[in-house]
Amino acid sequence: MIRDDTIVDSRATIDRSVIWRNSYIGERAEIRGAIIGRQCSIKSKAMAFEGTVIGDGTVVDEGAIVQPNVKIWPNKQIEAGATVTSSIIWGSQGRRAIFGRWGVSGLVNIDIVPEFAAKLGAAYGSILPRGSTVVLSRDPHRASRMIKRAMIAGLPSAGVHAHDIKDQPIPVARWITSNHGYAGAVHVRVSPFDDRTVDIKFFDKRGLDLDRNTERKIEGSFFREDYRRAYLDEVGVITEMPLLADGYTDALVKAIPVDDSRPSQLVIDYANAPASRICRRC
C-alpha cells in the first residue's frame, strides 16, 4: 500500500510493503515486506527487507541496507552505504556537513525543501554583520525560484538585507557581488548533472566561492540552530533589483576589443541567459 503524496522514482521496487504519506522512494531502491513511516526518504539503491519498520522522518542514504526485522525509530539518518543489522533507538545519525563540491545540494522537495532553505538563509545571515546586504539570484526553473524565495525569507530574520536580482546567470551574479559592495551572494540552480537536484551556491564579497572556514561557520549555526534574531525595527529589507545586470552588459561591452587588428582573449559565458540579455554587440 502506498499512501498519498508519496514519490516513487524510476526503477524502484516495492513488494508487500506499506509506504505512508509524503515519503520518497529513490531510483532503484528496493522495499520488501517493510513499513516506511511518514516523510521518510529512502535514497537511490537503498534496501529495506522483511519485517523492517522505519520511523517517521528518517533518511536512508544511497546504497544503505536495512536488514530484516530491524526497527529504526523516527528522525534518524542512515549513512550512505551502511548496513544496519540491529535496531536504532537512541541517538541521531545526522549529517555533520551540508556543503559539498557544488555548494548545498539535494533532491528538490526531498532534501532541499523551503523550510530547510529558510533556516539555511537564517544561518548564513547570522554569520554576517548586522545590516549587511546579500544579493540573490537563480536560474529560470520554478524549483529554483521557490528555494530562492525561501532563502530570502530567512535572511532578514537575522538583520540582513536581501537584494533580489531575479533570473541571472552565475557570472552576472559574481560580477554584481564584487562590483557593488555586497557582503556576499546566493545563487540557486537546478544541477546541470541531475535535473532532480538543486544546488545552492554561496559567494563571498569578491564573488568567489566561500572558503571552507566560512562554510563551517554556516554549518555550525545551522546545526546548532543558533540563529541571530533581529528585533522588529532591525529586520532586513527585501528589495527587487533586476536592473543591476545592466551594469554587467556595459562592462562587457567595454571589455570587447574594437580594434580588429588585435587578437581577442575575451571568453563569454552565456550560461542560462539569452545572448540578447548579455550583450547586443556580441
Question: Would you give an account of this structure?
Answer:
- By secondary structure, the protein is α/β, with parallel strands linked by helices.
- It is 23% helix and 24% strand.
- Helix 1 (114-126) crosses helix 2 and helix 1 crosses helix 4.
- The chain has helices at 114-126, 142-154, 170-179, 212-224, 245-255, 275-278; strands at 7-8, 13-15, 18-19, 24-25, 30-32, 35-36, 41-42, 47-48, 53-54, 59-60, 65-66, 71-72, 77-78, 83-84, 99-100, 103-107, 133-138, 161-167, 184-190, 197-203, 238-240.
- It is elongated and about 70 Å long.
- Strand 17 (133-138), helix 2 (142-154) and strand 18 (161-167) form a beta-alpha-beta unit.
Give the termini distance in whole angstroms.
57 Å
- Main sheet: which strands, in order across? 15-16-20-19-17-18-21
Measured on Cα atoms, how large is the radius of gyration? 22 Å
Q: What shape does the CA trace take?
A: elongated
CATH homology superfamily of the largest domain = Alpha-D-Glucose-1,6-Bisphosphate, subunit A, domain 3
What is the highest CATH level, the class of the largest domain? Alpha Beta
CATH-defined fold name of the largest domain: Alpha-D-Glucose-1,6-Bisphosphate, Chain A, domain 3
The computed structural class is alpha/beta
Major beta-sheet overview? 7 strands, mixed
- How many β-strands, per DSSP? 21
Report the mean per-residue pLDDT as an integer: 88
Low-confidence sequence ranges: 273-282
Q: Note the run of SSEs as H and E.
A: EEEEEEEEEEEEEEEEHEHEHEEHEHH
Number of domains: 2
